[in-house]
């Protein structure tokens, strides 16, 4: 899979979640120096912290499978540490987007002679999402004042793929920008062929959603329609100030 090769080639060149949290510590210190500790903490308590982590980790693991329980434990431990550290800095509102149908992106489908989804990869995603749901419920019970909204990217993808026409899509399996079979044999490059109508494709390139897909996902998570978020919507999480303490 392309994602696997890209992730391996860029190992050490990314910014891991733990380091991003350390950057946030520096940002908090700068805020305190500018407006004072009380004002900085109030601002952080009212801020919306958005997480979407795990897709690349799971894709890389799928290329060379090992101990699934150890994979989940490592990812959940990282999630837990990041949220707990941010909570300690004053953060209270956390929006979490779970892992979608990784086995149904064009680069995964292209590996199948029939263009079918990779069920094994989807099962890995589903298993992680179960762990993530339990983690957030546990953190909310343990950390007073923590509020969260868990967006179900996995379920939204299933609903979209089951009835693409309802969202105006004509393609759920191919990339709008790319080349070769299903547009998944190369990255989206300046000389790549693109589809005529970007909004009619779920995927922009062989591994990422189109702008239209992003817009529809954002709307679903914000409104919480059809149960795509829980226990509250992004709108509810971001809005009333009395949710934060």
Automatic annotation (TrEMBL):
GO molecular function, one term: hydrolase activity, acting on ester bonds
Entry-linked InterPro entries: GDSL (IPR001087), GDSL_Est/Lipase (IPR051058), SGNH_hydro_sf (IPR036514)
GO biological process: one example: lipid catabolic process
Statement: the UniProt record of this protein carries the keyword Lipid metabolism: yes
Alphabetized UniProt keyword annotations: Hydrolase, Lipid degradation, Lipid metabolism
Family matches, as Pfam families: Lipase_GDSL
Domain of life, source organism: Eukaryota
Family named by the database record: Belongs to the 'GDSL' lipolytic enzyme family.
Database matches in PANTHER family: GDSL LIPASE/ACYLHYDROLASE FAMILY PROTEIN (AFU_ORTHOLOGUE AFUA_4G14700), OS06G0725100 PROTEIN
Designated name of the protein: GDSL esterase/lipase
Organism: Triticum turgidum subsp. durum
Biological classification of the source: Eukaryota, Viridiplantae, Streptophyta, Embryophyta, Tracheophyta
């Amino acid at each position: 899979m392309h994602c696997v090769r890209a992730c391996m080639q860029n190992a050490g060149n990314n910014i891991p979640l733990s380091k991003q949290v350390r950057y946030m510590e520096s940002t908090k210190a700068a805020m305190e120096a500018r407006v004072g500790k009380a004002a900085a903490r109030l601002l952080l308590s009212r801020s919306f912290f958005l997480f979407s982590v795990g897709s690349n980790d799971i894709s890389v693991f799928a290329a060379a499978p090992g101990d699934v329980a150890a994979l989940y434990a490592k990812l959940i431990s990282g999630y837990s540490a990041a949220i707990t550290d941010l909570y300690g800095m004053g953060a209270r509102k956390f929006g979490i987007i779970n892992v979608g149908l990784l086995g149904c992106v064009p680069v995964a489908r292209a590996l199948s002679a029939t263009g079918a989804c990779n069920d094994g990869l989807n099962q890995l995603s589903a298993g992680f999402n179960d762990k993530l749901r339990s983690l957030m419920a546990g953190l909310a019970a343990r950390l007073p004042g923590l509020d969260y909204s868990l967006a179900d990217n996995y379920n939204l993808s299933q609903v979209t793929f089951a009835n693409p026409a309802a969202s105006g899509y004509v393609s759920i399996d191919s990339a709008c920008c790319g080349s070769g079979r299903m547009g998944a044999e190369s990255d989206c490059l300046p000389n790549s062929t693109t589809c005529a109508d970007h909004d009619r494709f779920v995927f922009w390139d062989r591994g990422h959603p189109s702008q239209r897909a992003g817009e529809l996902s954002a709307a679903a998570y914000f409104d919480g329609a059809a149960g795509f978020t829980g226990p509250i919507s992004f709108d509810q999480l971001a809005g009333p100030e009395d949710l934060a303490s």
